[in-house]
Amino acid sequence: MKFIFALLFLSVISPSEMITKMTDSLYIPEKKISIQGADAENNPVMLEFDKEKKILVKTEKGEKSEIKFADIPLFLKIFFFTADKTNPESLAVSAKSVAAALNSAGINTDVSAISASDYDGSAVFTIGKEKRFLAANVLELSKESMRPVTLKIGDETYIFSDYHRSVLPLAFPGNIKFFKNGALQGEWIFLRDEYKQK
To answer: What 8-state DSSP symbol labels residue 166?
Structure first.
């Protein structure tokens, strides 16, 4: 029965609407967004995004790097955007900007499918392919929350999880894992103190 409802839901929502809903679900109202965490070796990681200046400052292993909005890596650009809900049109503009970034990375934002996440088997909307078992660059969104679960581009895969445990609950993943050719390359952990392993 749930599968039938999911099929009905998919026929109603387009990939562009999925991206708009994703952007809305990830919206953080602050003009400056600061997220602190650690990498897999417990080195501090800080991400600071200034919506007005459109600059992301990443501090990792004590080194700061300033990244202009156009140059922000896609796996972070889907979380850091310039929308302001006091100006409703800005959310649509940000969604179009994210869609353009996905297209530039080789994700076909004109097609989508219902699928199951390779990561945890949960139901997802997959932007970038029309059928579940096709090989393609994709962005998978949780069917429940419309937040990113997986981003696959070529031989690179990013897994986003633990939103409910994040330092910014429900708006930013508590865990980001990066794989290349299936091998884990790195991990960032943005969990609140009560969820960190002792």
So the answer is: B
